[in-house]
Amino acid sequence: MPRFTHPRLEDVPLDLALHALADPNRLGMVARLAATERLSCTDAAPCETIPKSTLSNHLKLLRSAGLIETTQAGREMINTLRRSDFDQRFPGLLEAVLANRPD
Fold this sequence. Notes:
Number of helices: 6
Shape: globular
Largest sheet: 3 strands, antiparallel
Radius of gyration: 13 Å
Distance between the termini: 37 Å
Helix content: 40-55%
Strand order of the largest sheet: 1-3-2
């Protein structure tokens, strides 16, 4: 059974949060999660052609920045956006980044 590390948001530095949101693929993943309650790892992928190893790395970075939480549901890994916790730590950051992302 996979065990994922989810940091306490008070331990996440601003530069790590900004780094996680700076990549267009990760930002797209966060936007998809913001639009829905939860997504499997495959459904969170920014495109169909992304290698699994790259997807895993993006998800790991988003987890380490405190943006997502990953849980196991049967054989699937389900991702949810930690929006309220993240907004409490960095007020307005996620909203501003999502509102200004290129389409």
